[in-house]
Amino acid sequence: MEFSAKQIAAFIQGEIIGDENATVHTFAKIEEGVPGAISFLSNPKYTPFIYDTKASIILVNRDFTPEHNLTTTLIKVDNAYESLAKLLTLYEASKPKKQGIDPLAFVAPSAKVGERVYIGAFAYVGENAFIGDDTQIYPHTYVGDGVKIGDRCLLYPGVNIYHDCRVGNECVIHSGAVIGADGFGFAPTPEGYEKIPQIGIVVLEDKVDIGANTCVDRATMGATIVRQGAKIDNLVQIAHNDEIGAHTVMAAQVGIAGSTKVGEWCMFGGQVGIAGHIKIGDHVNLGAQSGVPSSIPAHRDLIGSPPTDLKTFFKAAVITRKLPDMYKELNDLRKEVETLKQSLLKKQ
Q: What confidence tier does 96 reach under pLDDT thresholds 50, 70, 90?
């Protein structure tokens, strides 16, 4: 499909600088722009590319003022990155979607399947499962007995959703993700560790994204809950009975131990580790590789293990780099002090 600058500006409420009839049919990074492509500029580091790019239309923030002549059409918006996301969503929604149940899929007789659903080859839908309207289930995906999946969800190949779990509307679950595996519960006995049955479920609320090879474990009792709008990256571990607040985002390899409650609108960098049975407040931002042993109040920006405020952490990092020199200086001072002591003793 092809869109003009005028149509795009109307959709994202932008201001056109240049040719309102310029048309695009694809997307490209600004440094790789080609005629017929739309790109964006939000990071100042990429500003030099705007003067050479071949892209037909560039989204820029309203405060952008070019320092040189441009050969492309600009659309000024409040937030270029956010506007690009809207356009990409529109583009994705315009693609034709598969429908129908492949003859090689298995759908249990007691399962209920909504309208315009796609179930790919070798997918499995268990007894008493429910699949909402417009949901797409790609090949080799397992939907266990009693699972309920809402409308307009997308399950990529190789997703596994264990029995009785709940998935809301407009959720995306990527390949290899496991929703509802047993929580890590074992009781020590003289003979070894005895497994504690995990009889709870997992609940993913609306508009939750789960990355590839991420695991959300079922609760021992009750539910492990990921609240609406949360975005979970690849290779993340969410343990039994955790609760992840609405619109919280986690980068790859985050690990959260059991029975921990994470607040709303939190941001966790890669490889953050969080202990169990604690509470993380709303709007807490944790830098990559932070280790969290205890609860954190709301509205904190922290990094490190244990986490500390950013200013203190970076001051300490500067000092850490100087430790070898400081250690050598300390030894030199010790030698000087010892020499002075020996000199004084001789004089006595």
A: confident
User: Residue 68, SS3?
Assistant: coil
Q: CA dihedral in degrees (281, 283, 288, 291; nearest 10)? A: -10
Active-site annotation holds for 240? yes
Secondary element (H or E) of residue 224: strand 223-226
- The three-state secondary structure class of 209 is strand
| Cα 11 to Cα 18: distance, rounded to the nearest angstrom | 17
Which one is catalytic: 68, 163, 174, 240?
A: 240
b or e along 260-299 (b: 16 or more beta carbons within 10 Å of the residue's beta carbon)? Answer: bbbbbbbbbbbebbbeeebebbbbbbbbeebebeeebeee
- Residue 279 token pair: 């509470």
Nearest to 31 by CA among 57, 50, 45, 58: 50
Residue type, 345: L
Q: What is the pTM of this model?
A: 0.86
Q: Are strands 73-77 and 112-113 parallel, antiparallel or unpaired?
A: unpaired
Q: Which residues pair with 119 in a beta bridge?
A: 101, 137
Q: What angle do helix axes 5-12 and 80-94 make, rounded to 10 degrees?
A: 110
> Does residue 226 contact residue 209 with C-beta atoms inside 8 Å?
no
Q: How many C-beta neighbours within 10 Å does residue 108 have?
A: 14
Q: Which candidate, 315, 268, 310, 316, places its Cα nearest to that of 292?
A: 268
Tokens of 220: 């021992």
Count Cβ atoms within 10 A of the Cβ of residue 341 and give its class: 0-12 exposed, 13-18 middle, 19 or more buried: exposed
- Interval 109-126: pLDDT, tens: 999 999 999 999 999 999
What is the DSSP secondary structure assignment for residue 83, as one 8-state letter?
H
Asked if 177 and 236 count as a contact pair (C-beta separation under 8 A), the reply is no
Rounded to whole angstroms, the Cα distance separating 5 from 21 reads 6
Q: What is the pLDDT of residues 165-221, one digit of tens each?
A: 999 999 999 999 999 999 999 999 999 999 999 999 999 999 999 999 999 999 999
SS3 state of residue 210: strand
- Give the whole-number percent of the chain exceeding pLDDT 90: 90
Please state, as a whole number, how many other Cβ atoms lie within 10 Å of the Cβ of residue 308: 15
